[in-house]
Sequence to fold (183 residues):
Amino acid sequence: MNFLGTHGTNKENIDSIKRNNFQPSKGHHHWCGKGVYFFIDGINSQPIEVLAEHWGKDNAYDKRIKGYKYKEYSVLRVPFEVMDEHIFDLRIEAAAKFCNEIRLLLENETLRLGKKMNDFQIWEYIHHKLGIQLFIKNDYIKLGISRKLRIESRIDNCTIVSLVNPKLYIDVNKIEIIKEGSI
Fold:
C-alpha cells in the first residue's frame, strides 16, 4: 500500500534525515510504540500539511525547561510503501478487537508478574509476533490552538501512522521539504 505522509520537525534535523533516514522515536509514551510518525489522509480536522506544521511548531517548546528547544521548523512530505501484511490498521474493527485481546493477555501476564503495563507493550507484542511494520490509527492530538488552550477531547481529529523501521521503506531522495518557518 502506498502512503504519502507529512512530518513536522526541527529544521536542524533535515540534514541528518536526508543522510541517515529518520530515527524512530524511543520511549514508552508514544501513540503506537516505537516508530516515525506521519499524518496521512483520513479523518483529519485540517490538511495533513497544516497538522505537521503545528506538530513541528508545538514540539519546539519544552515544558521542563520552559523554553524552546529550537527556533525553526520544517514540514516534510514523505512517500513510502508497505506491504498489506505488514500493516495493522486500528480503524478496522477486527484489528481493534484483536488489540483488545492482546491487551487482556498482557494484563493477565503483568498482573501475574506484579508489573505495570501500558499500550507500549501491546504495540511491541503485535510488532514482534505479527511482523507489523506500520500502525495506522485515528487519534486526538492537541495541536496549535487546542494545545495552547489545553483542550481535552476524546474525539479523534487526525489519522496518524507509525512506521517502525523507516530505513526499510523510505527513500531519502524522495523526501520533499514543503514548508519551513520560524517558531
